[in-house]
What does this fold into?
Amino acid sequence: MELFSNLAMGFSVAGSLANLAFCLIGVLLGTLIGVLPGIGATATIAMLLPITFQLEPVSSLIMLAGIYYGAQYGGSTTAILINMPGESSSAVTAIDGYQMARKGRAGTALAVAALGSFFAGTVSTFLVAIFAPPLTAIALKFGAAEYFSLMVLGLVMSVALAHGSVLKALAMVVLGLLLGMVGTDIYTGTPRFTMGITQYADGLNFVALAVGVFGIAEILRNLEDETDREVMTKNINRLLPTRDELRQMIGPVLRGTGVGSVLGILPGGGAILASFASYTVEKKLSKNPREFGQGALAGVAGPESANNAGAQTSFIPLLTLGIPANPVMALMIGAMIIQGIVPGPNVVSEQPELFWGIIASMWIGNLMLVVLNLPLIGLWVKLLTVPYFVLFPIIMAMCSIGVYSVASNTFDLYAVAFFGLLGYLMSKLRCEPAPLLLGFVLGPLLEENLRRAMILSRGDASTFVTRPISALLLLMALGVLVLVFLPQIRKRRDEVFTESDA
Amino acid sequence: MTFNLTRRAILAATVVLGLAGTAAAEFPESQITLVIPFAAGGSTDVVGRIVADRMGQELGQQIVVQNVGGAGGSLGAGQVAKADPDGYTILMGTVATHALNPLILKQKPYDPVADFAPVSLLVLVPNVLAVNPAVPANTVQELIDLAKKEPLAYASSGNGTPLHLSGELFKSMAGVDITHIPYKGSGPALTDVLGNQVPVIFDNLPSASGHISSGKLRALGVTTKERAPSFPDVPAIAETLPGYETYSWNALFAPAGTPPEVVAALNKAAVAAMADPAVAERMKEFSATIVASTPEELGEHVKAEMAKWEPVVRDANVSLD
Amino acid sequence: MSTKPKDSTDLAAGLLLIAAAAFFGWQTMGLPIGTSLRMGPGYFPMVLSIILFVLGVIITLKSFGREGEAFGRIAWRGILFILPAPIFFGLTVRGLGFVPALFFTTLIASQASIRMKPLHALVLAVAVTILSTLIFSYGLGLPFRRFGPWVQF
It folds into this structure.
């Protein structure tokens, strides 16, 4: 049982007093910074990265990993409390989590998110430990054609994110895709839609977009009629979920963990899809899908689990191949190199203490998170009793700092204002921001892989169906499409004038 | 109003005093910002942070690293070009910011020669030509032969990067056509070559080295004139294609107009930092060759690099708006 | 015509989508389209602009013939003060420096609410500035200049 001896070694490394302390500091700092509005995992790591450079290699990576999932957790907290996601994954949590908070169920939403994340983290940590090498082999089977088909599947699923008009959701996806095109075309270097502003050459900043269309739009909505409406209901019910609610979350958490673990392995942006995919699955399986978007428990439990599972398994390509799955992982690679570790397949064999120590610390970190955060829920919920007119200027200040700290680019701040206006306009026109956001994230990946696949196949479009994995993904996309539109068509026949026009 | 006047008086006095006093003797009085024109975690960032840490000790002032990524390094470099020429804002320049971008970009955000005061050329970093082990080519010559027989593609970290142009130079010198597939950075490009989605790659030696030593990639040749000390078994491409030479480099620049004594102080600190055995050890692990040149040598180097790349850029017909 | 019922929200949404599609389509004009083997930078955006245009037209057409919800109130005061706050921060963070820029940003944003009294706004802005400076500048050592060249002696 090599696995157990390896895990034992890992726990002895991660369990040393110093490393426990660094893990705790990382998780704590990550949560505290991540919980500030508009500041997600990437911004937090960018801020805290230099701190870790002074440490031992294992300690610095343990601390960085702690910051990463701590920040991700903190980001979900702000998504639930004030509709301010700092990452693409918490954008999904915001949809139903924030509605739960408005209905006085913030405590339940936060607890469900914490418990779901912990369960997913535990399972996927063991997946990483047991299956890392074989899973890597699967990930390498994904070429441009497969990624393109995966993104198509993701886009098809995104329509299910909407709870209103499907047509408008589609339009929002397409608009998001177009916004994702802003910046330099990687194949020819031609700038597109940048209006000659070099600062947008690398595209629009995701945090600016998310903060704008979700957070700032929400602030503006809340300022519409201050005199006669409270933003939050004052009667906040109990903090912890009831037995019944716990039972309700079992299914979503299990499915979310599965979806997230699988997608997290893919280095080309699979983890981005995890929480979106889980949301779609839950909405499709739910007995009352109308509840989604109005504060469905499963809409928080599923995506949060998927998100955390994906966050853990995205360490697989990093640890076994030395390949970053996302910008945060790229920072981790930098941290390894600075520590004199050559990232690559040799890390497992040459630095087993490092490899297994990080894996063990992931679980420890998740445990710390849940222990830290369950008691904190009371505090977070109390925050909601702060008068809104005091809260939102603070939110604006934090957003400005957070967005600026990602890349020291002042144009990102102008983008925040623009997207705040756009988001407000969208909400007035009853267009939803989540499909737009997904389109924005997937757009560049979709185009990049489509073009690459076409070049590699020398212009033969059949590459998408002759490659088995790609064909399977496209079939799944077709299946989802049928599932989404069939009920709509049937409903149209039944009731000609529905308020939700399909 | 009186307040304003007083403040202006103090301001004037400070300026006069500052001019009268010897700036070099006091430099640096406060922390220095080192702008790294790429995202944190990349190879330039790694070199920059190691050097900044050691240089800060030499100067007795902290050097704060600020990553200003974007537009292939042009944003960060442009920011330093416009900064106050006092030595408190310096740039970690690269072959991209000071040779390739100025040649490639149609709109030039800065002039690599006129807008900067060179401080020191720190390191040279070799690039490497590697293939997936499934590719039936064990030498550069075999790859050239293969490329003449069947269509091949090579991955690079992006359009207009030193790696792309290393590939283009290779194609023109070897007289073969290999399709260029650009990626967003080294990581995704490596992934596709490891998975044999794309057979060939030009990459920085540091980022590929782990995969080469583990056998997941087969290195056919390094791009430097001589073999890299860290991989003595890998031949130089120049052994097959005489005259082939490319490499990435990192150098410190201050804005043009920085007082010579300040440049000298920065140069002294940089040279001392690079002489530190711990730094040297790190650079060796990183496959980087330490140069630690004088400011004049760096100035010459920039001009030589621009002259070298100009025909390559023109022949490859790469241009960015 | 005016008596005919229409969903003015969807009508506006549809028209705006058409406008957005037209804008992106117009911007794509100058970009090479390429072939499906070697797609140019304009290929994908052009396809998307067309899809968006079609969707906009359908939404517009469907908005006729049924009643929709009203727009509701518009948060003009919010738009006037919330949106300029990050812009102000962006314009001044390098020149004024982190501390003054953040102070004014908070102050501007706080004016968006009619409930905020001037004195309270001032206190809040000072508190936010002090705490943020302690956390971000001193605590995390972010490379912001606390006071920029515009306010230095």
Summary: The first strand of chain B starts at residue 32 and ends at 36. Chain B has twelve helices and ten strands. Confidence is low (pLDDT under 50) at residues 1-24 of chain B. The CA atoms of residues 158 and 184 of chain B lie 6 Å apart.
